[in-house]
Amino acid sequence: MSSPAASTALLRRQLKEMQGDKDLSNISVGLIDDNIYEWEVMLMISDDCKFYGGGFFRARLSFPKDYPLMPPKMQFETPIWHPNIYPDGNVCISILHPPEEDKYGYESVQERWLPIHTPESILISVISMLSSPNDESPANVNAARQWREDPTGFKKQVRKCVRDSLEMC
Amino acid sequence: MDSEQIDYQSLNYLSTVDHNLCCPICRSPLVDPVYTTCLHTFCSTCINKALERSQTCPVDRTPLQAEDVSPAPIMIANLVNELAVLCPNSELGCTFTCARYLVEAHLSHDCEFVYMKCRECGDKVLRRDAGRECLHQLEECTHCFQHIKKIDMEAHEKECPGLLGECMHCRLEIERSELKEHEFTCEEATISCSSSSLGCPWSGQRKELSHHQAACPFTFLRPVLQAHAERLTKLELENRTLRKRIEQLTPRINQSNTTEPLSFDEQAYQFLTEQEHMRQDMERLSATLGELEIKQGMLLMNESLRTKEELAGIRAAINGIRMQIHWLLTVRVHGTEHRHVVGGGAGTPSNSAGPSHPAEHSASRRLSDNFGQGVKL
Description:
Order of helices and strands of chain A: HEEEEHHH
Largest interface: A-B, 20 and 20 residues
Distance between the termini of chain B: 135 Å
Strand order of the largest sheet of chain A: 1-2-3-4
CATH topology of the domain at 3-115 in chain B: Herpes Virus-1
Helix content of chain B: 40-55%
Strand content of chain A: 15-25%
Radius of gyration of chain A: 16 Å
Structural class of chain A: alpha+beta
Shape of chain B: flat
Distance between the termini of chain A: 38 Å
CATH class of the domain at 3-115 in chain B: Alpha Beta
Order of helices and strands of chain B: EEHEHEEHEEHEEHEEHEEHHHHH
CATH topology of chain A: Ubiquitin Conjugating Enzyme
Number of domains of chain A: 1
Number of helices of chain B: 11
Oligomer: heterodimer
C-alpha cells in the first residue's frame, strides 16, 4: 500500500474527487509542475469566518511517498498572520503531525495523523483553525501574544494580510 | 502474469462503488478485506502497513495489534470480488470486462494485450501476435527502403519519409521527406513581399510575386530605405553605448566635484557665501538676544513690582502694628499711673515727676503684664 504507485493512484483519485466536488467551491486544487505529490491549493475564505473572511490564501501541500500512512506538509505561500502558522508559512496543526514521534511533547496521540484523513479533511481543519487558533501550541509566538493581549491590534494585522492576499492573486 | 503484478487499487470499475465497500485508507474497493476487533474493515495490506506505523485503529484509535485483525466475512469479500472491472490493459485496446476475481484468469489465459515472450527470438510481443511468425525479423519498407522490424511497421507507416504526401498549396503529390523543401519553392504557396521588413503589406502566391515587385513602391525605394534603416540601427547602437558611457561617468563626476581642489574664484565665492551665512546667523542671534533682554526686563520689572507692593504692604502692616503697640503702651502707662494713684502715693514719690519715669518703671512691670495679657488673649 505504501508503494509509490499506490500513493500516486490514491492521490490522483483524491485530486479528481476534489476538483469535481461542487461542495468545495471555496477550495481549488491543482498540481505544481504536474507532480502528483505537490499540490497547489487556493483557499477562498468565506466572509463569515472570523478575522480571515474574504481572504484568498495560496498554500502548498507536499505529500510524502508513503502517504496516506504519513501526513503531508502544508505551507502557506501567501503571507499570513496566525498563532499556529510559522512566519515561513508552515502550518502547525496536530492532525498533520505523524503518529509515532512526539517532538512537541504536549499533544496526545489522540489528535495526530490518521491514514484515513484526506486532503479535503486537512483543508477543512485548517480553515476551522484560522477562525479558532490553538493557544497552547503557538507557531508564531508574536501573533499568539497579540491574539491574547491585543485583540484589536491582532484583528487589524489580520485584516491587513487579508487585503494583501487579495492584491497578490 | 502473477497475481502480485495486478494492481488492484488502480483497476477501473465499471460503476461507482458504494463507499461502504471501500477501504478507508486507500479509498478504493476493498482488496482481501479484513476486519478488526473494533469492527472496522480494511484491505489487509493497508491495515498491516498502518499498524507498522501506529498500533491503533486508523478510524477510532482503539489500540490494535496485528493479531486483532482477521479476515472479513465471506459475504463482504464476495461483494467486492464480484464488482465488474475493465481489463487493466484497456488502454492498450482490450475491451474485456469481468468480475474482479476473474481478472487474474483473464490476464493469464485470454487477454490479447498481455506481453509474452516471442517463441522464436525471446523478445516481448503481445499475445495476439504470439501465435504467428516472429515479428522481430527485419523487413524492408516498400517506400523508403529502410529495414524495420515487422512489429514496428504499423507505427513506421505513419511517419515513413518515403510515402507520398500532398502539398497543401498546389496539391502536388511528392515524397514526405521532400515536402518541406518543396514548400520553399511551391508556386502557389502564400508568401509576403520580400520588402515586408520595410513595411510592404502585400502577401500572395509565389508566382505573383514578380508581378507585384515590378510595381511595389517599397522594392523601388529599397536601397534608400535600407540605407536609412542601417544608419538608424548604427545610430541607435552608438546612442546606447554613449548612454552607457554617460551612466558610467556621472557618478565619477559627482565624486570628483567634492574631492578636487577648487579654483581661487570658487574658493572666494565659497568663503563669501559662508561669510554671508554667518552674518545672517549673527543678525538672527542678536535679534533673539534683544528679544530675550526685553523679556528678561519685563520679567524683572514684574517681579520687582510685586516685591515692591509686598514691601509696601508689609510696611503698612508694620506701621499698623507699631500704632497698636504704641496705643497699648499708652493705655498701659495710663493704667499703671492710675493704679499708682489709687494704690498709695507714699511708695512712689517720683510718680509725678514726668512721663519718662513711668515708662522706665513700666518696663519692669511689663514683663508680668505681658504674661497676664497672654493669658487674657
